[in-house]
Amino acid sequence: MQSIKGKKALVTGGSRGLGKAIALALANEGVDVAITGRNKNTLEETVNEIEKLGVKATYSVFNVADKGEVKKEIETLINSFGAFDILINNAGIAAFGSFIEMDEDEWEEIVKTNLFGPYYVSKAVLPSMVDLGSGDIINVSSTAGLKGNAVTSAYSASKAGLIGMSESLMFELRKKNIRVSTLTPSTIASEMSKDVLKITDGDPDKVLQPEDFAELIVDMLKLNKRALLASASLWSTNP
Ligand SMILES: NC(=O)c1ccc[n+]([C@@H]2O[C@H](COP(=O)([O-])OP(=O)(O)OC[C@H]3O[C@@H](n4cnc5c(N)ncnc54)[C@H](OP(=O)(O)O)[C@@H]3O)[C@@H](O)[C@H]2O)c1
Q1: Per-residue pLDDT tens for 147-158?
Q2: Can you tell me which residues the record assigns to a coiled coil (predicted)?
């Protein structure tokens, strides 16, 4: 396995939940980390935690669904922090409900955040990654993107679209030594999943934790550069 010490990573939605666990796990490996989100206070708190691990850390406040903001803020980040070796497209939102009843604006916001977000961010990061001649992009989809459900039309559409974009990008970019991976985790304990976990009667000790997901990502990044894990689903062993 290769060391990832000294690399630079951008983790969208890195202020809490899965993104925060990923940012901390990367920092533990000696990776400098930039995190993004919409809430400045949460980002600041997480950056303080990351810096305690002895690496450089910074944050940028923007909405991944806003094309103009993404372009401007990522350009500023790259100019101040340097080109990114690693991009984790993690920021996302979820809302569940009947297709007929869900508000059109809400449906659109989910797709814009979960599908257009990673598209805008990847477009902004890629030119400098291509210049580096290597890199890793990990797109966080969901098992909901593999299979629809009665109440998940917007979320499943956004995450299925992300799988399609991510797989296509993998085939395009492997020729440039850039590895693109698509992850489809099942339910992991976080702010996003707290309502789902309330109505399932599983044992809370058996629920996947953000750290389990972060461990998988670190191991993927440490794979020899000739090896690419194109996709993986992370499930609870015995929920
Ligand atoms: N938890 C699960 O069970 C589960 C399972 C499968 C896949 N996933 C996926 O994993 C990813 C992380 O989920 P999570 O459970 O960690 O969710 P979370 O706890 O709600 O955290 C979401 C993160 O994304 C940021 N974010 C949300 N919307 C954004 C926007 N429009 N622009 C910029 N940042 C935004 C949030 O910060 P701000 O609110 O400050 O913007 C926060 O940092 C998501 O893509 C989710 O779909 C989660």
Answers
A1: 999 999 999 999
A2: none
Measure 202 CA to ligand 1 centroid, in angstroms.
22
119 catalytic per annotation: no
**HSE, side-chain direction, 13 A CA sphere, residue 30:** 7
CA of 190 to the centre of ligand 1 (A): 9
**Single pTM value for the model:** 0.98
Burial 49-72 (b: 16+ CB within 10 A, else e): ebeebebebbbbebbbbbbebbee
Closest CA to 233 of 147, 175, 173, 174: 147
How close is the Cα of 175 to the center of ligand 1, in Å?
A: 30
Give the gyration radius of the chain's Cα atoms.
Answer: 17
Fold classification of 8-230 (topology level): Rossmann fold (3.40.50)
Choose the residue to mutate in 41, 165, 192 for probing ligand 1, maximizing ligand atoms within 8 Å of C-beta: 192
pLDDT band (50, 70, 90) for residue 205: confident
Among the atoms of ligand 1, which is closest to the Cα of residue 16? 43
| Residue boundaries of the structural domains of the chain | 8-230
